[in-house]
Amino acid sequence: MTFPAVYPVGGDIVRPLKSRRGCKTCKARRVKCGQERPDCRRCSSTGRKCEYANTPNTNNYTFASAPTTISILDLPLSSTPNTVWRERRAFAYYFQHAARYLAGGLDIDFWAGLIPQVCRNEPAVWDAINAISTLFESPEQCLDPVFLRRQNGASFGPSQNQREALIWYSRSLSQMRLQIDRGSADPYTALITCVLYICIETLQGRIEEALQLYKQGVNLILNLRSQVSCTAVPVTTAALLEDTIVPLFVRLGTVALSISGVPTNSLFAPLENNTEYEFTSLVSARNAAVPLIAECMLFQREAQQHFSTVNGGSDPSEKLSDKQRVLQAQLARWRHAYDGFLQTFHRSNLNLPEASTSTVASLLIYHAAAYIIVSTCLTRNERIYDAYLPSFEIIVKQATLVLEASVGPDGMQPPFTFEMGVGLPLFLTVISCRDQRLRREALSLLQKAPPVQGFYKCSPGVAMAEKVLQIEEDLSLQLVREVVYNADGLNTCCNENAIMMGVQSALDLDIRTSIPATKHSPLLHPTRGDHTDEGTKQLPNLIPGKARITFVGIFRPANGLPPTVNENDIAKWNRGPDQTFLAFVKQQCDPISGAWRLVKDYAPIEC
């Protein structure tokens, strides 16, 4: 499905407009005002007195409009009193509840300050806010087309609340398009509505449409930046663009990089090597972490491309190895600076605001996940993850704090978070960490997490993670049964719990040899207080190396089969074209030669 472009291709809506914010002198002369403050360039260069109808408060991002404009809050959008009441109630719910979840702890000024101010004079923003509020409060119905097709004709249309939200959304889109067609669209407002429309689409589970809006928003930003360079945009607009809007899009784009096929864009500036970090606030720490995390995810893509090109039969190039070391060093420097920043509060007996607790934990989570990704992506051996159990432990521990902070008064998580959530790191933990305690804790947290986080939907992630865990545990049981059979000369019937408890001892050699010999290997040092004799360590309950699979991806036959899959591979499951399949690689023992080899396999999942 192609989402209709709300904004012109190339983002070119920043052109000479009928100025509503220009100075009185330029309006009287009928010339384009550059809107520089306190005196515009045209008036200064000609010696004329420069006056504005209203001067915006740059600290609170309040925007000046024509003095005759009536506040949208005082102007009913419908003659039906009940509709007016519902609009006001929706706005109140947004302001009192939804905004704080969208803000994520650090951006409350944008979501609960700037946007409500702008909506007072911009009907498109007002309607978009009310649509978000209603979908946020009533997220009960899935509008995914595949979900609807699989209900065998059952009626699963949108609820009354959702219909009203979609009416507001449609009206907002129409208003925005009309302004653009008339040449009266403020580029600033266009960017804000783009952010809100992304929220609306993701709240409905329409990730592809949200991604298309994201790309349109990036084009708007790039076009607006070009106007800033030639002073066609007011200084206050330029400041908000770079300080608020661009970082927001970069964070959202970082989540998008986890989706296969989503390209990078020029908002991601290349990192400088040997960057030294020093943080004075959580905002500065986050602004430094996000591009670093994005660079790590792009590096993972580069590594995957290498292995797909050489078909897994070649070691990484020296260039890739060098880049890996550079990113590991950058991550270490960031963590050192971040720890130092947090310690300043403890030494000064200061406490970070309660709303910042989630941000502190989230940054630790994404740092740990990025470190795991960078350190492991240049090998196809699943056993390498055993060396990073402390990083997985950080993810699980800090994700627990994040979810405790985001739970609502009703004990439920919000249906959507705009910022990078815990979903992706928890998914990484479930499919890559083979400590069964940690991965099951991670799965439990993933099941409780907000359903949609940025562009990441948790329900498919949960389904994939559960299937990976199930397959590996089944393969572990199969291996242990074979060990019991080989040892006793017959296939002893064992209780499954007893078998799982025996995995460690029965395949102890396989597990011990699976641990990479690195100086940072956590298994060389106690990490949880489980001590035996000095110099030894009781190993965690790990999945045996030969029972581990490599996650490849998912596909639906209705959308076409991957190049390496044929119809016979999936025909045995007797499923419809809308069935989602997990593709993975596993180790298989040849019954004749006894040699182990890698084979591709597929399994249906429900998501």
TrEMBL record:
Domain Zn(2)-C6 fungal-type: 22-52
UniProt superkingdom: Eukaryota
One Gene Ontology MF term: DNA-binding transcription factor activity, RNA polymerase II-specific
PROSITE patterns cross-referenced by the UniProt entry: ZN2_CY6_FUNGAL_1, ZN2_CY6_FUNGAL_2
Compositionally biased spans, kind Basic and acidic residues: 527-536
Keywords, alphabetical: DNA-binding, Metal-binding, Nucleus, Transcription, Transcription regulation, Zinc
UniProt-annotated stretches for the region Disordered: 520-539
Gene Ontology annotations of biological process type: positive regulation of metabolic process
InterPro entries (alphabetical): Transcr_Regulatory_Proteins (IPR052360), Zn2-C6_fun-type_DNA-bd_sf (IPR036864), Zn2Cys6_DnaBD (IPR001138)
Entry protein name: Putative C6 finger domain protein
